Amino acid sequence: MELEEFKKEKYAESDRPPFSIQQQDPWLVMCDGDVRQKQTFFSVSHNQYYTRRIPELKEKIIRANADEWLVLQSIYSIDCYLWNLISNDKIQLPPLPECTILECLLSAPPNDPECHILFLIEETETIPDDDDENSNDETDDENDQDVNPPTFYFCKPGYNEEFHKQDGHSIFENGSGGIWTVFKKKFYVSTFQTRRLLCLEPDNDSGTITITPMSNESPDVRKYLDMGRFANFILQSCDDTLLYVHMFFNGKNHGIPYDFLVFRFDFARKRWIEMESIGEIAIFISYYMRTGTICSTRGTNLNKESIYFIEGRYLYVYNLITHSISLSLPCPHVSKKNPSMHWLPLPCQNKQ
């Protein structure tokens, strides 16, 4: 009996996140294995990792998060739902049509009145085989599916039995995309082609999205015109500032992080202002998910004026003042086969 209780306690510890570890900076969560059955939680400030096998994260893609709530998608389908990694509660979402999910954002936890989940998708339609005499057998496979323009699907999790829909043509000309974030519980996107900054506010009662232009100018990132590879991120700072992070790559095949530019959005002047210093904050970004987060460095072992960046299994730390970059391999046991990397703020147990 005592042996059974010991095994049960040990198993319970291994299949839940290390939320009893108190820290204010985000965790680096690495999911790997053939079906993402293994998870590693790495603490940058403590330089320590914890391995887990959480059943709910097996065979799942982490699409978005708000506090301890994650939006999970099956690796086998487009089935999505919300899962609380502390309480293990689930909220099933309405079914999506057959599609490709381009973006997914969660504005707030489900108990917040301003909570909305927003998907940007490309619907796929299967064209039935009707034995048309004029059909060309050589092109049948290519015409079996037709991709529609991007469409917004949104709802309040736990309230709606189906999604509201809105055409995305008003934002995306010629199918172009953008950089997305949640800022003060609203959705923001910086479009690629038109270079506009837009604010999107879904109204669950009317089933419509109000789109407000914030700026028609993108940040001036013409510092290295000869560098063909770059990445952009928009993040909400811990002091409620909207930041734009532009990353340059260099080296062989443009595979090495080289330099960063950081801008803040001036809402009064409706323009992006370059920042020479970010002060006592640290920026965390993941190239794999094109997402990130920000936290204060006060009372932590984190480096101020720094950007923590993940590509592959490697952790880079860039100092915005000295323009120096350090490189480490924090968890060498993680598989090299495209592990998914996420920066997640993980609440402590005493916050429940």
Automatic annotation (TrEMBL):
Residues covered by the KIB1-4 beta-propeller domain: 41-319
Species the sequence originates in: Solanum pinnatisectum (tansyleaf nightshade)
Protein name listed in UniProt: KIB1-4 beta-propeller domain-containing protein
Region (Disordered): 127-149
Acidic residues bias (residue ranges): 127-145
